[in-house]
């Protein structure tokens, strides 16, 4: 995909794998606000902090009529261990292509080439989408810095 979906565009409606073996799509949240937060990998320091921050604010997101869904390429079994170990309350889903050749991260243009210590590899660009009840992207945070991020997203959700 050449153009990355942005504010005002519909969020791609691509199925994600849930930790209970089912599937979930952004359209399943129609009529409700949705925060889709994409992170690189379970159980890494920044990703753990981000997930714990969103989990700590889950009740406030619920009160704002906003669902949370954390997404990475990790498999559901790894998500379950991560949820259990960190006592996370924000649900997680796996972006493993379920009904097509590419997952939602590819459709959003956030599965990108990264470079660490001279080694190139494909990875998730830490990105958060606030999706309105109509399925349109209301706000995007790209290349997220974790500190204070969940609170900023909550404030945006409350204002939407």
Automatic annotation (TrEMBL):
Protein's name according to its UniProt entry: thioredoxin-dependent peroxiredoxin
Keyword Membrane: no
Active site: 47
Family in the record: Belongs to the peroxiredoxin family. BCP/PrxQ subfamily.
Subunit structure: Monomer.
Gene Ontology molecular function terms on file: thioredoxin peroxidase activity
GO cellular component, one term: cytoplasm
PROSITE patterns: THIOREDOXIN_2
Keyword Transferase attached: no
EC number, UniProt record: 1.11.1.24
Reactions listed under catalytic activity: a hydroperoxide + [thioredoxin]-dithiol = an alcohol + [thioredoxin]-disulfide + H2O
One Pfam assignment: AhpC-TSA
